[in-house]
Write a structure and sequence with these properties.
Chain lengths: 339, 253
């Protein structure tokens, strides 16, 4: 009897909370769809540049799934490799074929090597391939490649939850109401939160970066200051987004519900998984995800040693996201005080 | 920031409401309320739960806007952010940061009103002496009893010497001795020219007010001195008068 009553009460509560209901049924579908799109899309096709390859060899590449581009000069091929348009360059020095891999992503390295092995083997056995790397090296593990993305992801994730829950607490405990009976401006409330959390965020970013590089031994050739800057900006975006979305949650539980909606899709699009296999049209979704910009910059700095000129666009986008979220936050506070 | 934007002419009423109405999603919470409270008055707001007392208070302070009518506080049209400097507001919920100590709570809200240094220290001392909380300032608020939290909340509202004090059920959970001393202090403050608006359900407290306003279903059904209200209802106690007027007000609808 009691059990039945309890069950009915829970069902009624669920039915009243449409969002929890939607989460229960729709979120798993969303995540499963994403996984399917990422893992079961088109197969990865390596982009290889060739310089002065004997025609007999070049003909072997015809009809394969690789994108082969013939470069006239070394310079044009190298710059294409640096810009990430190519995955590798194949050329001959004397009789030995020489392969220069871009190197940032071990899974692409493997795909290129596999492709060359299978296409060169037929009829032309015994050629020793000399392999070089533009970035990274043969020892680079997959973790070195997605480690930088994980650093950004965890900063984003935890700051988002923390900011969301604490701003919600401020609301449910009545202290926000009390705070708003003082002459503080709404923008000051948001900026105060940004500053207070910003300090912890900076500490967190430093700790995570130090731990990943010095303790976990993550591959790192860039500037540690750049890493901290990007991580801080990424956390700031998480902070402003977390406080903004907490306006639309009425309990801690509802903050948790934002994880599969806001956090998980970003993980998919941020570079943890190779998106080359995904429908190009869907790949464009990554442009609205803050984590993508942070992760791109982190990866560039840590693996390719990129400088300000290379990642400045990511910085501008992250600052832009934070600004937009912060302004929306100020507007959302109008719900609690008319002025 | 200027703290004296309002008109300090004592002739101008502390509260001046004209034809205030407020609706939430087509539900009328307040309708056609007009009320004037002179400076230094201790005004009691009485009414059953859900009658619109809190909404009325929020409109006075500018936290909320009325849909119709005009609100002037200390002569200044509302809402006006800088006016919050002149108000002290204590809501029904204690709204304290439980992770902090009593003193940290006071310092935080003091800072919000621009108090700092020696002045802040002095004001904290005065406000906490008043509510008899000075010995417990360095304890975490999470260890406070319900009555202590209420007293701390009151101390915060008094901290910046507001010209208008709005207290939403200030003495709930406070023992009779302290309750008496708090009411003595409120009376003293109003003698000094501080306008005080108190909501209460306790009739003995209502009797101590200069005037009372009775709200029912969003309408102000009576405004007068406690004695006059009892007489006009033809009853012997305020409690009976409150019930009688409430029924009459309901029947008129």
């Amino acid at each position: 009897m009691r059990i039945r009553a309890l069950a009915i009460r829970i069902i009624r509560q669920f039915l009243r909370d449409k969002r929890t209901l939607a989460l229960l049924f729709l979120a798993p579908l969303l995540i499963l769809s994403l996984m399917k799109l990422v893992f079961a899309g088109q197969s990865v096709s390596p982009a290889i540049g060739i310089i002065d390859i004997p025609p007999s060899l070049a003909s072997k590449f015809e009809g394969t799934n690789a994108t082969i581009t013939d470069y006239k000069t070394n310079e044009s091929a190298y710059s294409a490799l640096e810009e990430g348009k190519l995955d590798a360059i194949l050329q001959f020095t004397g009789d030995t074929p020489e392969l220069l891999l871009e190197g940032s992503d071990p899974s692409i390295n493997k795909a290129v090597l596999l492709f060359l092995q299978s296409s060169l083997q037929t009829g032309n056995s015994g050629i020793a391939l000399s392999i070089h790397y533009l970035h990274g090296g043969p020892d680079m593990a997959p973790f070195d490649s997605f480690g930088p993305v994980l650093i950004g992801f965890f900063s984003f994730f935890f700051v988002f939850i923390l900011a969301g829950v604490s701003f919600l607490r401020e609301r449910t405990s009545g202290t926000l109401e009390r705070l708003l009976t003082t002459p503080i401006r709404r923008s000051e409330v948001v900026l105060g939160y940004l500053t207070g959390f910003g300090i912890f965020t900076l500490l967190q970013a430093t700790l995570i970066a130090w731990f990943s590089v010095d303790v976990l031994g993550l591959y790192m050739v860039g500037n540690i200051g750049s890493i901290l800057l990007i991580n801080l900006l990424l956390s700031l975006t998480a902070l402003t987004l977390g406080t903004l979305l907490s306006s639309f949650a009425s309990s801690e539980f509802q903050i948790i519900q934002f994880i599969p909606i806001v956090i998980v899709p970003q993980a998919f699009f941020s570079g943890l998984f190779n998106l080359d296999a995904m429908n190009p049209w869907l790949q464009k979704l990554s442009y609205i995800m803050p984590l993508k910009y942070g992760a791109d910059a982190m990866k560039g700095i840590m693996i390719r040693g990129e400088g300000w000129n290379d990642y400045q666009l990511d910085v501008y986008v992250l600052v832009g996201f934070s600004l937009v979220f912060a302004i929306l936050n100020v507007l959302a506070l109008k719900k609690h005080r008319s002025m | 920031m200027s703290t004296n934007v309002h008109n300090s002419n004592p002739e101008i009423a502390a509260v001046d409401l004209k034809d205030i109405s407020r609706t939430f999603h087509s539900r009328t919470v307040l309708s056609n309320i007009s009320l004037s409270i002179p400076r230094g008055e201790l005004f009691g707001l009485l009414g059953p739960s859900g009658s619109g007392k809190t909404t009325l208070i929020k409109i006075m302070t500018g936290i909320d806007r009325s849909d119709a009518g005009s609100v002037h506080m200390l002569g200044v049209p509302m809402p006006q952010l800088s006016m919050l400097q002149s108000f002290g507001y204590m809501a029904q919920s204690d709204a304290l940061y439980n992770e902090l100590t009593g003193k940290q709570n006071l310092s935080f809200f003091g800072a919000m009103f621009g108090l700092k240094g020696a002045l802040l220290k002095e004001r904290i001392q005065m406000a906490t002496d008043l509510v008899d909380l000075s010995q417990h300032l360095h304890r975490g608020v999470s260890t406070y009893s319900g009555g202590m939290k209420r007293r701390l909340s009151l101390a915060i509202a008094l901290l910046h010497e507001p010209k208008l004090l709005i207290l939403d059920e200030p003495t709930i959970g406070i023992d009779p001795v302290l309750r008496k001393s708090i009411w003595m202090e409120l009376t003293a403050l109003s003698k000094q020219g501080v306008t005080i608006i108190v909501t209460t359900h306790a009739m003995d407290e209502a009797m101590k007010c200069d005037r009372l306003g009775l709200i029912r279903d969003g309408k102000l059904i009576a405004v007068n001195t406690p004695q006059a209200i009892i007489e006009s209802a033809g009853c012997s106690t305020l409690e009976d008068a409150f019930i009688a007027l409430g029924q009459k007000g309901g029947a008129e609808q």
